[in-house]
Each structure stands twice: as structure tokens, then as C-alpha cells.
Amino acid sequence: MIKAIAQAIPVYVMGVFKLPDGVCEELTKIIRNFWWGSDNGKRKVHWKAWSQLTKSKNAGGLGFRDMKAFNQALLARQAWRIIDNPVSLCARVLKAKYYPNGCLMDTVFSGNASPTWRAIEHGLELLKEGLVWRIGNGTRVRIWRDPWIPRSSTRKVITSQGRCRIKWVADLLDANTNWNEQLVRQIFLPMDADAILSIRTSRQGEDDFLAWHLEKSGIFTVKTAYRLAIENKLNSKNSNASGSSIEGSKSLWNTIWSCPVPPKVRIFAWRVASDCLATRVNKKGRRLEALDTCTLCGTESETAFHALCRCTYARALWAALREVWQIPDQTTWTYQGTKWLLLTLVKLSEMERMFILMLLWRIWHVRNEVVHDKRHAPIEVSKRFLVSYVDSLLGIRQHPTKDIHKGKGVICY
After folding, report:
1. Following DSSP, what letter does each residue of 104-135 receive, concatenated?
2. H or E element: which one contains 97?
3. Cα–Cα distance measured from residue 231 to residue 255, given in angstroms and rounded to the nearest whole number
4. What's the angle, vertex CA 327, arms to CA 324 and CA 328, rounded to 5?
5. How far apart are CA 144 and CA 135, in angstroms?
6. Per-residue confidence at 126, pLDDT binned at 50, 70, 90?
7. Percent helix, strand, coil in the chain (nearest 5)?
8. According to the model, what pLDDT value does residue 403 have?
């Protein structure tokens, strides 16, 4: 609902105007309070920073949009349209008014522009960071100023200009529009020279043109522009965005998001893996509880691992389900930090992951019922509920055209 409605409603306005920071913050606040919940206008505990939730699902977040970054990505699309279609009526009108004698990429604009043009300027700042020149005849590309070397790091040359008077890329090409390898290696450092010589030039001597470096097709997309805006924001905060960390490990988080369980169970699993369940340990860390000892068994601190694997009711339900499901013995597991669930799931088959996530979800549900002074569900009731629920899910998945209520489909574990 958040992605389909709350974050979709302002898209049209965000694609035309730069929203004030206060408006973006207010929209974010409304969405944030809706996600974590509120009671009579009083917000509930926000167990995870919003900046973590706006990360992609493969990076440990939920994929919610950062409104400021998304606004800039949408405006970058408007700037791209001017570059991609300069003969359109809109592009010609804007050029005549704001940069009649210059180029959109190089002009320094005045501060008395309309709100619409200031919005395009805001998007242009992001667009410039992802553009690269595709070399044709080299007559439009400046060697020392323009981004024209297609590589993941800087797309400008690293070599210092020094006393070199060669200005245009065309000067590095011979009469057949092939690279003058001797000249290139004479002017540039080996790193630059190798990258330049790997660029394919146009045999027909076509004009140079700008392309979007973050897509193989060279065509701009809001998705990659938004990703670039988020990376810039993380870099500005000196955040660690390393793909080797557990936060950014795509394969680990996919064990949750690719599991064939209901969305509410996947969200629960994400909360376990992100350590944002309302356990007593987390409550004590927020100064909501004086003690962190488990209220049911009183033997250990109530972490997510204890509540779901080591507590009395959890152990009993695990043992009961092992009679009908092929699941590992959780008593042999050791606590490996807050990411214990991800490190456990990655070693299991898809079916085992499904069983375990459904089991953990049920344990937490029953535990909440007991904590809030409701009736304790017997082990046998929970067992029958889970077996029936999983059989229904597997029946729909394995026999999508059959009526599972008639009992004609054979369920395979």
C-alpha cells in the first residue's frame, strides 16, 4: 500500500517541480508513521532508521523511496529529454530562453528562472553524473573536460593535461576514424590509454552523442538515476556500501524475499534478520524495559534467537513439527549475532526455508498472544494450523488450476 499509493500519488508533481525539503520530510513522516503504526495520533516505536528501510531489498532494506532522491531522479528525466530530443518544441523554447548561445551541459544559469526550469536544473545536476559521450568522429568531445571514457570510476581522463595542446578527441583519430595508438600512448597514462583504445569508434564518421552510462542501452531510466542519487547520498554520509558486507549481500537477503511464503511472513523474517522485533533486549536498549530476561521461561535474555528457537514453547513446537516436516534441529544452532537467521537460511533448501519461516512466524504470533494476556494456543493446535496452512500454499503452487478444497491434488514436500 505504501509503494502503490502513498509514494505513487505525488509522482506527477515530483516529475515537474522540485518539492521543498519540508514537503518531502512531511511525506516521509506520514509514510514512516503509517508503516510502524500510530495510536490516537501518538506514534509507536520505530525500530529501524528510515535510511535503512529505503535501501533496496537486496541490501537489507524494504525498497521504500527516499522522496528527495526520487524527486531529483524524476527531474533528471526532464533534462534527459531536452538532450535526447533537442529539436522538440519544448527543448527549442527552453534553449532560446535560458541558454541561447551555449550548451545545456556547460551553461551556468542565472538565479531568476522559473520554478519549472529550476527543477530541471536540479535534475541536471544528477544527470551529469551519469552521462558519457559516445565517440563518433570526436569533433564535439573535449579531451580534458568531458566524460567520455566508459568505466565504472571517473569517466574523465586521469592524466594531467600539462603542456599538451591537443583539445578535441578528433585529434586522436586518424583519417579512417581509428585511434592513433602511438599518439594515445604518448599523451596518456597507461590506465587511460588502455581504456581509450578499447573504445569502438564510428566507421562512418557519425557525430558524437551523449548516452546514459548506467544502462547498457545508453538510454536514461529513472530507476538507475534513483540508484545513483541514493549512492551519492550514502557517499556524502561516508556510509559503507560495500557489497561484501552482510548488509549488502544479495544472495543472503534473497533467501527471504524469494521464499514462497505469504508477504506478511517475509516481512516478519526481514524484521528478525534486521533485529527490529519488539524483544525485551531491544526494549531495554530503548529504555522501555528495566530488565531483558524472557518473561515466559526466565532463563535467558529475550533476544529474537532465544524467543524463536530456545524458549520453552518454541522448543516444543519445533519438536512437534519435526515429526511431519524435514527441518533441521534448532538445538544444534549457535547464536551468530543478529544476522543468525540469514546465515542459517542460506544453507537450506527452498522447502526447508519455507517450513522454518512459517514456524518462526507462528511462534512469534503465539508468544505475543501470551505476553498480552491472551489464551495460550496448545502445541497441537499450532501444529495442525501450520501443516494445513503450508499444505494450502503448496497446493496452490503445485496445482494452480485445481480446487484445493476438494482434496484432489497431491501435495509434494
Report:
1. TTTPPPPS---HHHHHHHHHHHHHHTTEEEEP
2. helix 89-98
3. 24
4. 140
5. 15
6. very high
7. 50, 5, 45
8. 62
